[in-house]
Design a protein that fits this description.
This protein is an all-alpha fold and 259 residues long. 91% of the residues lie in helices and 0% in strands. It contains eight helices and no strands.
């Protein structure tokens, strides 16, 4: 029971942010069919072109030609409208989630004892309220919706390949485990570098915030050179972490593209 209780507490600790999605369930319910519609229309393009080349052109019938061109034009128009509606609703939901998370964290942090503000750097608190709230809001919407859209697209592509030639589908299925292995290899490295980059950004922001708010005292006591050296060190660490993240992103992109 103790172990189960500890596991449940750990799950609750990492899933409390999902409570902010409850007011957005209606919007989320609209986004899912819009994503499915956009994916279906994207996959319908190659199918319609194949029908146009294999059946319409050899027949030489003007009526069939006009009909297939009209269907392609309508599908492209509907796809554009669906993508526009999806982009607006998902962007609006992301902004609303970010606003709610920031408001919650601000009220929660202001209710903490004075000791917390003495021991916590100002830049770290500002980073959590501003930057991290935006990241969490983006993860709740962008990552989840992107996963659902990618899943629909993958299933649709498999269906199209099966319809065209089952051997193409077999070739794709063989490559999927290799692709997953490569992704799994780079995942912990990405998470580690991302965490280091966030921490270095937070430390740099702390130096900047505390220097600006206390600039009168710093200049009065001639402490600006030490602050400048501290800023240079933190900025260099941010640069090195960002450069490592860029290199890893390029290497992982090349590896997945080759696969």
């Amino acid at each position: 029971r103790i172990m189960l209780s500890a596991k449940l507490d750990k799950i609750k600790k990492h899933t409390w942010v999902f409570s902010f999605l409850k007011p957005q369930l209606l919007v989320l319910g609209l986004l899912i069919p819009l994503s499915a519609l956009g994916t279906a229309l994207s996959l319908s393009g190659p199918i319609l072109i194949k029908i146009f080349i294999d059946k319409v052109l050899p027949s030489g019938r003007i009526l069939y030609l006009a009909v297939i061109l009209l269907v392609i034009s309508i599908s492209m128009l509907v796809k554009s409208l669906a993508q526009a509606a999806y982009s607006y609703l998902s962007g609006r939901m992301n902004l609303k989630l970010t606003l709610d998370i920031r408001s919650f964290l601000f009220v929660r942090s202001m209710g903490l004892p004075l000791r917390f503000f003495i021991t916590t750097e100002q830049g770290q608190l500002i980073s959590r309220l501003h930057g991290d709230a935006s990241v969490v809001g983006g993860l709740l919407t962008g990552t989840m919706l992107a996963f659902f859209s990618s899943l629909l697209e993958a299933l649709g592509v498999m269906g199209v390949l099966l319809w065209l030639d089952y051997r193409l589908l077999v070739a794709i299925l063989i490559a999927i485990p290799i692709h997953l292995a490569v992704t799994r290899y780079f995942k912990p490295r990405r998470e580690k570098i991302s965490a280091q980059l966030r921490e270095s950004d937070t430390s740099l922001l702390s130096v900047i915030t505390e220097t600006i708010t206390g600039i009168k005292t710093i200049k009065s006591f001639g402490a600006f050179p030490s602050r400048q050296a501290q800023f240079t060190s933190k900025a260099k660490t941010c640069y090195e972490n960002a450069l490592d993240a860029l290199k890893l992103s390029i290497f992982s992109s090349i590896a997945t593209s080759v696969i």
